[in-house]
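WP5 quarterly update. Target: 1,4-dihydroxy-2-naphthoate octaprenyltransferase. Source organism: Mycolicibacterium aurum. Length: 293 aa.
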Amino acid sequence: MASIAQWVEGARPRTLPNAVAPVIAGTGAAAWLDAASWWKALLALLVAVGMIIGVNYANDYSDGIRGTDDVRSGPLRLVGSKLATPKSVLAAAAVSLGIGAVAGLVLAWFSAPWLIAVGAVCIAGAWLYTGGSKPYGYLGLGEVAVFVFFGLVAVLGTQYTQALRIDWVGATLAVATGCLSSAVLVANNLRDIPTDAESGKITLAVRLGDAKTRVLFQALLVVAFALTLVLMAATPWCAVGLVALPLAVRAATPVRTGLGGRELIPVLKDTGLTMLVWAVAVAGALVLSTTWG
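C-alpha cells (predicted):
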C-alpha cells in the first residue's frame, strides 16, 4: 500500500505551478481592469488545483492500466509501480476533479453561468488526455491541450470571472502562461521519448524527435519572455517579469546541452518555478501600476 508521501508524490506536486501561475496571472489581469476579487481568485485557485491533481491521478490510472508506465524514468506512478490499486487512484482522481467542479460551479454562479459548460469541457479534457479509447495525449496533442486549458482558459477565465470581461493584457498573459505551461509538458515528454515510443504513446516529442523537441522547449521560453516585453506597453513595470529569466536559463541548460533521462527531471521543477516567479512578478506589477499609477 502506498504511503501518504507516495500519494503526494503521485499527485505530482511539481506540476502545481501550472495551476497556481495562471490564476495569479489572471488576477493580475483583472486588477489591471480595477476589478480584482480575492475571494473569486481563491475559488479559481481551488478549481485549478483540483483540476491538475485530478488530471495527474487520472493519467496515473489510465497509463497504469495500459502498461505505459511499466518502464519509466520519471517520477513515481502509483498504478504502474503497483503501490496502489487502479480503483483507488481512479477514486482519488474523481475526488480531486469533483472538488474543482464544485468550486467552479460556485464561481460560475456568481460570475457567468455559461462558464459551467466551459468547466464541463475542462473535465472531459482532463479525462480524455490519457483515458478513453482514443486518448489525445497519445496522438501528440497534449501540449496543445495544456496551452488551451492551463493557459488561455485558466488565465482568461480567472480574469473574466472577476472583471466580467477580458482585454489584450489578459490575452497576452494567457498566451505567455500557456507557453510556459506547455514547456513543462514538453520537458516531461522529452525525457520519456524512449519509453513512450516503446509503449506506443505517440506524444508530440515522439513525433518531433529528440533534437526538434529541445528546440521547441527553448522556443516556448523565448516566446513567453518576448511577450513580457509586449506587456510593457501596458505599464513599464511589467519589465519586472524578466526577474524570472535566470530561472528560465537554468531550466533550459540541461535541455540545450543534450542531457536526457532522469537528468531532465529538474527541468520540470525549474520550468514550473520560472512560470510561478514570472506570474507573481508580472501580476504584482499590474496591481501596483493601478494602485500607484
